[in-house]
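Handout for the seminar on molecular recognition.
Each group receives one record of this type.
Step one: identify the two inputs.
Step two: read the structure output and locate the region that could contact aspartic acid.
Step three: write two sentences on what you found, then compare them with the reference statements printed after the record.
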Amino acid sequence: MIKVCKFGGTSMADANAIRQVKNIIDADDSRRFVVVSAPGKRFKDDIKITDMLYRCYNEVVNLGTCKKSFAVIRERFVEIVKDLGLTIDIESVLDKTEQEIDQSKSPDFAASRGEYLSAVVISAFLGFEFIDAAEIIRFDSHGKLNVDYTDDKVSNRLLGVDKAVIPGFYGKNFQGEIKTFSRGGSDITGSIIAHGVKADLYENWTDVSGFLVCDPRIVHEAKVINQITYKEVRELSYMGASVLHAEAITPVMKRRIPINIKNTFKPEDKGTMIVPNEQYKEGLNDAVITGIAGKKNFTVLLIEKSMMNAEVGFIRRVLSVVEHYGICVEHLPSGIDTLSVILESEQLKDGVLTDLVSEIRENVNPDYVHVIENISLIATVGHGMARRHGTAATLFTALAEEKINIQMIDQGSSELNIIIGVANSDYEKCIRAIYKAFVK
Ligand code: ADP
Ligand code: ASP
Ligand code: MG
């Protein structure tokens, strides 16, 4: 039995949390490969080490050195090492790291050092070998994971290694420079390692007792999902359930390795099992839906043209204008005479929205283009939804009762989810209403 364990930022935040990590590892001999994040927040307004490291980079750009911002990071690691009673020469490691951040002038290099330093400390504390992710994780010239190279390196390097600690979040690009995944990316590293060592289980240890039906910051009493499929997690993570990175499913999916989301601070809780369809056991969850997730700040371009559906190439022409601006489309629900193009508002700043709309007008000559800003998208996800009658009715009744105005509806073709668009100001209220309607 081989388990790969990834510990997130709160599990690395201070010596107490790290002692807890050691208890978990020591309790099970099959927990052989440990992937770690950078120290995260210790209290509400604390700053994550990764955010401090991006500050270091900005300081290097502006002042030529990161001395001031790095001092806070230095203090944090010195304190952790001291509190753990370790005798490693952390000052020398920190001196070298500070110099390298100054010299590299790279945001990715700077950001990666949180995980690097975390792994140096934890490997010493656990007595495990340190294996640098830079040696084994590689990106291609498009910035995507080089899957073949990485799989090969990971399995060869870890073959015959009994126990090791590997920093999450980064690898090297095709030119040999340090490159990170997007934020929260240590989850992806854990998944890559689990795939590479043919693990039986990928344990993802965090600060909540599993994947919850919705964000606990919105519904405090949100229940734990006992079991969920890979596909449902992809939908929920992509739509904002930040507990697991949306790209962390793909590597383990190839070998059908289940993921167990666990709470470092309540290790006795069962957590959530994320499994492929064929391993899913009916009856473990009580609700009709599996989960709810959402994201704020979208813009809807509602394009109307009579007989649009009879006009060959209409949608293609709209999309080529959007593509011309290098903008990704989030959703594209359409009717007979209408097409809604849903875009992240972030991509439409600095006059891009106005230019985009006028170019669409020129290119497809619509009757009408209506722009709706400040929209949130909320996905209600559940593989059982499609087979059950009345799910949509329950959803829409709940929102009507709360007087929430639905601006857009899109049922994905997977029939795994219903996505609705509401005003940003209704976001939290809407999630609470859906939760109340489905979770008893
Ligand atoms: P880590 O640092 O361990 O990777 P993250 O902060 O990335 O942890 O993810 C855990 C956090 O995700 C939780 O503390 C919680 O606030 C947030 N979260 C958002 N949606 C969900 C959800 N559906 N279930 C559980 N946690 C969620
Ligand atoms: N430390 C990185 C971040 O804050 C990666 C991670 O924690 O997964 O995004
Ligand atoms: Mg995370």
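Reference statements: The chain has a mean pLDDT of 95. Residues 8, 184, 187 surround magnesium ion (ligand 3) (CB under 6 Å).
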